[in-house]
Amino acid sequence: MTAKRRLKRHYWAGITSSVKHVMNPISEEGASHAYKAAFCLAGPKIQTAFDEFSASPTGKRLLKDRPSLGDQLAEVAGAPDAPEGSFAQAYRDFLEKDTNAMVDTRKLASLAHVDVLAEQLGWDEDIAWFVERLANTHDVFHVLAGYGPGLAAEGGVIMFTFSHFRMRRGLLAGFLWTFRPRVGWRRWHQYLREGWQRGAETAEAGRLLSAYYEELLPLPLEQVRRELGIPDHTEPAGAVDWFNMKRYRRFLSGYGALDKEMAEGVASLNR
Predict the structure, then answer these.
(1) Bigger pLDDT: 48 or 84?
(2) N or C: which end of the chain has fewer CB within 10 A?
(3) What is the pLDDT of residue 260?
(4) Among the ranges given (125-139, 145-159, 236-250), the one the predictor scored with the smallest mean pLDDT
């Protein structure tokens, strides 16, 4: 299994894919390049995360069962009868919010073609399944960590998520700092740093990457947060208006590469 993996970084391919992703982010091509960039630049970090995942009792059970998180989330998104106050209900409510930038990131995960990219890099089926599972957790992390829709919350959940891979905070924050929030860079930096710290605390207290989400979805949201050790969080007042979204319209719309359904969802940001 491990003999097939190439763990060294492929810097040039990663940088090239990063640029291509930024030029056309929310599209089939953009999604594919985003994952290729991550595979090439963060391969050893992903391998470390997978090793910890596969060594945990829940991770071993997940690898044996191989559930499809994307399929389960699709079922939850379309079900009107989720238990009141449940994780599933909170997830569905998040997807239905008008200002959600991504609408439903399961679609982007399906466009990433993780299996093809894993084959190109010589990675085996286990780690390809693991990464594809992670690709479907973005909106799940939004709900669990308490980050709502909007660009500011995207920055917070990105920092929250990547802290679990022990990546360099400065490099990631450096990219996010290039955004121009109305509240100023100092407040924006503080918000991003808090997201990173909350993620790091969760990584120590729970095991977000190895959680069996398919079994947790029917449970009360607050119970799931406690079980996973997620610190409390309250979004700052007015955070959804920290950015002038018209400035990012072309970026978020994939420079015209979106299909009608996704384009309408992104357009809601500019109402």
Answers:
(1) 84
(2) C
(3) 58
(4) 236-250
Give yes or no for a contact between 237 and 143, defined as CB atoms under 8 angstroms apart.
no
Give the model's confidence band at 6: pLDDT under 50 very low, under 70 low, under 90 confident, else very high.
Answer: very low
197 Cβ partners below 8 Å, 6+ apart? Answer: 163
Angle of the 11-23 helix axis to the 28-55 helix axis, nearest 10: 130
Neighbouring CB atoms inside 10 A of 25's CB total 19
Q: What pTM, to 2 d.p., does this model score? A: 0.80
Instruction: Give the closest residue to 121 by CA, choosing from 218, 203, 32.
Output: 32
In our burial notation (b when 16+ CB lie closer than 10 A, e otherwise), range 164-200 reads bbebebeebbeebeebebebeeeebeebbebbbebbb
- Enumerate residues 6+ apart whose C-beta is below 8 A from 117: 32, 35, 36, 39
| Sequence-distant contacts of 77-80: CB under 8 A, at least 24 apart | 77/104, 77/106
Tell me 220's DSSP state.
Answer: B
Cα distances from 209 to residues 124, 192, 194, 202, 221, in angstroms, run 19, 21, 20, 10, 17
- Strand, helix or coil for residue 86: strand
Residue-wise pLDDT tens digits, 37-83 = 777 777 777 888 888 899 999 999 999 999 999 899 989 988 888 88
Domain boundaries, the chain: 2-270
What's the alpha-carbon Rg for the chain, to the nearest Å? 18
Q: Which of 156, 153, 115, 154 is closest to 133 using CA atoms? A: 115
Q: Which of 154, 66, 138, 146 is nearest to 106 (CA)?
A: 138
Q: What's the CA gap between 45 and 241, in Å, rounded?
A: 34
